[in-house]
From TrEMBL:
Gene3D superfamilies: SGNH hydrolase
SUPFAM superfamilies: SGNH hydrolase
Lineage of origin: unclassified sequences, metagenomes, ecological metagenomes
Alphabetized InterPro entries for the sequence: SGNH_hydro (IPR013830), SGNH_hydro_sf (IPR036514)
Organism: freshwater metagenome
Protein name, UniProt field: Unannotated protein
SGNH hydrolase-type esterase domain location: 14-166
Length: 204
């Protein structure tokens, strides 16, 4: 029986500095840890992480099309990860505007046959800001739920996590370190990553 060749998959990850490895002595961040747990040879999966520090939903809406156009091909299985930060909350952008921006990206991507996976904003060590981030995260989750798009909630599992907050407290940039990035990666891997890619879960 002739073997059917599997299509190559290309994944573009767009987000702010939380998709980098800032503060991680292992230089992996959550993205590197997720990639390390993702089979990328059969079928071939190429992953492109394209962060933009301080990214807002508006700047993401502005740049996403150009970023994916440079990396996707008509013959590949094209997939987009939106790793949403908390800049909208810091800058006082209304939740309704943030929702609209992300909904527009998702809808346009799907019209172009691009599958979308969304990661919500992580909590801050600033408790007042967390009030706004919680509303933002809930709004993003609702946008995804209405469109049956996978959504990973970083906020609620991490906001009261002792290890995560301990790293934020000592960070000049309000960024996690090894523990925090490990927790974030675990959440992604256990909240729909493998089913989204059509892969079997990698066992420890």
């Amino acid at each position: 029986m002739e073997q059917v060749e599997k299509a190559e998959t290309r994944i573009v990850i767009l987000g702010d500095e939380t998709t980098t490895a800032i503060g991680d002595v292992k230089a992996l961040g959550w993205v590197g840890r997720v990639i390390a747990r993702t089979p990328i040879e059969d079928p071939i999966i190429d992953i492109y992480n394209v962060p933009s520090p301080g990214e807002t939903s508006a700047s993401l809406l502005e740049r996403w099309g150009g970023e994916v156009q440079r990396r996707f091909r008509p013959e590949t299985d094209n997939r987009l990860v939106l790793a949403l930060g908390n800049s909208d909350a810091r800058e006082g952008v209304s939740v309704s505007r943030s929702r609209l921006n992300i909904a527009t990206i998702i809808d346009e991507a799907r019209r172009n046959e691009i599958s979308v996976f969304v990661v919500g904003p992580p909590p801050s060590f600033d408790k007042a800001l967390n009030y706004e981030i919680e509303h933002l995260a809930t709004g993003y989750e609702d946008v995804c739920r209405r469109r049956s798009v996978p959504f990973v909630d970083f906020y609620h599992p991490l906001v009261d996590h002792e290890g995560f907050n301990a790293e934020l407290e000592v960070s000049a940039r309000n960024m996690p370190a090894q523990t925090g990035y490990g927790l974030m990666a675990w959440l992604v891997l256990n909240r729909g990553w493998y089913p989204w890619l059509g892969l079997e879960e990698v066992q420890s």
